[in-house]
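FIELD: query
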Amino acid sequence: MAKDPIEKIQKQVGIVGRSEAIRHIIRQIVSVAPTDLAVLITGESGTGKEIVAKAIHELSPRRNKPMISVNCGAIPEGILESELFGHEKGAFTGAVASKKGYFELADGGTIFLDEIGEMPLQTQVKLLRVLENGEFMRVGSGEVRRVDVRVIAATNRDLAVMVQQGQFRQDLYFRLKAASIYIPPLRERREDIPLLIEHFVQQVLKRNNIEFAGFTDEAMQLLMTYDWPGNVRELRNVIETVIILAGGKKITADLIRDHLMHYEEEVEVSDNLPILAGTTVDRAERELIYKALVSLGVEMREMKQILLEIDRKIENGKPTGIPMPPPVATVRPEDIEIKPLDELEREMIEKALEKFRGNRRKAARALNISERTLYRKIKEYGLV
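FIELD: result
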């Protein structure tokens, strides 16, 4: 029997999955790859947007030319234009020599602009010009240059809403949307999880000389029912870590669950934590309590102590006796303190930086803003 052509393409470009959603994405890739259309890839963080971009490039006539990936959210606003379009010597302080930008370096190939929603409006104007006629000017130069570059952009933000709010140019949005590919979150294509697990296991074993005894049934059930707020990226990180931590022993649900709790100290905590089908009432109660503790904002160390005490009582057949949170006091409207928005914003940024010990990446993620936006706010409020 002839091999499925979609599976053949998946193997060629390294996209793992058997869901209809993945097969639809492969068909879209095959359709747009031979063209020079701009492509907009959307989906939650961690779904694999860059992998799809690389697949488009690999199947295009530009495959033998460079593909350059640029994270627009990770480059400070003041130097993004210079990084994209280059600059001339003396264009600004520190410009000791002329420099080619990413567009010149990608000439004849593809440029992948990740987090396109974080691009400043002024830079969006220049990007639109490149998309329309391939023309641009280096910073500090009046000379018009031309490049032949295919643009693929990606975002986890709703650009249509940003257009309505004046945060993204409408003409650029429609230009980028010449072809659109949406990657659904992992929780909406759970049939891909077993294949992804197998793929990541093989990657770990190939890179490390370690033993692997497999997963228990309960562990696999947990992996299948967890909502994976970090999507494929989170799944990969969890698989890599638990294989190493297991030390050649069979991986249990407790090991995975414990690591998920540790992992959620580093990233946003999901409100959709797993409750295993077919589990005991006590164990399901434990999972529900965990969700409640998360929603109440209980600190992780304190939460672990509470959960360990619950487990001990469950194992000994005793009632859990979980204390209910105190009733919420009634607040009268006239007692509510009103603060200016900029003051509240400053306080939240200070608290986030304090909580994550100055780690701006984690603070930006917790505040649901880009690192560049956080960097600008820190300077604006004098928090350096």
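FIELD: remark
The chain has three domains: 5-184, 187-315, 337-380.
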